[in-house]
Amino acid sequence: MRKNFGTKPWFYPLPVLIIGTYDSNNQADAMNAAWGGLYDANLIELCLSAGHKTTKNIKEKKAFTVSFADAKNVVACDYVGMVSANNTPDKMEKAGFTTRKSDFVDAPIIEELPMTLECRLVKTTEDGNIIGEIVNISADESILNEKGMIDIQKLQPISFDPVNNDYVVIGEKVGNAFEDGNQLK
Ligand SMILES: Cc1cc2nc3c(=O)[nH]c(=O)nc-3n(C[C@H](O)[C@H](O)[C@H](O)COP(=O)(O)O)c2cc1C
């Protein structure tokens, strides 16, 4: 037996993306976004409400960063998804996030979040969605393995469970992509 739930915004796994932007005074902001993902090999799409400070900042600066929320920073990452810089200008200080400007785009890198996509705004779609080009990915050395590659178990990215409003950590390896299926060929 299966239970029907009807139409819901339920999807697994949903990312927890922390979008970093600057406003016209170069003040940094960050927000939490679960509705976003890879759109092409070098493009990402974000579904952002028009009223967010972040959305206005992206249109102004034509740039943004996307960092993956991690287990270590759950409280701050949730906080930036609950409070707007529209009415809380010291949101970043309250979150405990410190920033420096990306070397590639006019958007902030959040020092506490170790992996970041640095993106240039390509366009806003007719539905208001943001399409950005990934011009660089940077990662703190603390999350690299002995080969110098990103180690997901060190990164400990989190996923948003929209059914239970939980954050869960991602990381347990259960297989090898483009390889395990060979067993059935
Ligand atoms: C788990 C979670 C996921 C969210 N996902 C989105 C999203 O995909 N799109 C969106 O527009 N807002 C989303 N939000 C809400 C924004 O993060 C929130 O409104 C934020 O305060 C906007 O900040 P800003 O006005 O400083 O940009 C999410 C919030 C949480 C907690």
Average predicted confidence as pLDDT: 98
What is the number of domains?
1
Radius of gyration: 17 Å
Largest sheet: 7 strands, antiparallel
**Could you say what the CATH topology is called?**
Pnp Oxidase, Chain A
Q: Cα distance, first to last residue?
A: 31 Å
Corresponding CATH architecture: Roll
Q: How many E-type strands?
A: 12
H/E series, N to C? EEEEEHEHHEEEEHEE
Structure write-up:
The structure is a single chain. With 185 residues, this protein is mostly beta strands. It has a single domain (14-184), classed as Pnp Oxidase, Chain A. Helix content is 13%, strand content 34%. The protein has helices at 53-61, 74-79, 91-95, 152-155; strands at 14-15, 17-22, 28-33, 36-40, 43-46, 63-68, 99-101, 108-110, 115-124, 130-139, 158-161, 166-169. It has a seven-stranded antiparallel beta sheet. A hairpin with a 5-residue loop joins strand 2 (17-22) and strand 3 (28-33). The longest helix is centred in the N-terminal third of the chain and has 9 residues, at 53-61. The chain starts with 13 loop residues before the first strand and ends in a 16-residue tail after the last strand. The model has no long low-confidence stretch (mean pLDDT 98).
How would you briefly describe this protein structure?
13% of the residues lie in helices and 34% in strands.
Topology:
Layout: E1 14-15, E2 17-22, E3 28-33, E4 36-40, E5 43-46, H1 53-61, E6 63-68, H2 74-79, H3 91-95, E7 99-101, E8 108-110, E9 115-124, E10 130-139, H4 152-155, E11 158-161, E12 166-169
Antiparallel strand pairs: 1-11, 2-3, 2-6, 4-5, 5-10, 6-9, 7-8, 9-10, 11-12
Bound molecules: flavin mononucleotide (FMN).
Residues 29, 31-35, 47-49, 52-54, 78, 81-86, 160 line the site of flavin mononucleotide.
